[in-house]
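Our working data are protein records whose layout never changes between entries. Instead of coordinates, the fold is spelled out as a row of discrete tokens. Here is such a record, shown just as it appears in the course material:
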Amino acid sequence: MPRGQEDPFKDWKMRLNNKIQQNEIVGRLKYETFSKGPNHEQTWISIATLDDVEWGRGEGPTRLAAENQASYQVVRNKERDREHPVGY
């Protein structure tokens, strides 16, 4: 992300944790986060799971940025799942 540009996924990890605490989203949250590339130019990738099922994936220049993006995906996917349940 270019310098001076705000991260559109900022605070999504905290928002997801709040939703879990308020039982709006149910499940045990885990992140698998790793980096790739040379040390001076690393890209971080994070996979967010609820009860061992992948619900989100993110990528960013820092570990937190990748986890925030994955958290955003979890919230969006859970909202879509709630709007369009399987079998209806």
Remarks:
- The helical segments are 12-21, 63-83.
- The first helix runs from residue 12 to 21.
- Residues 43-83 form one domain.
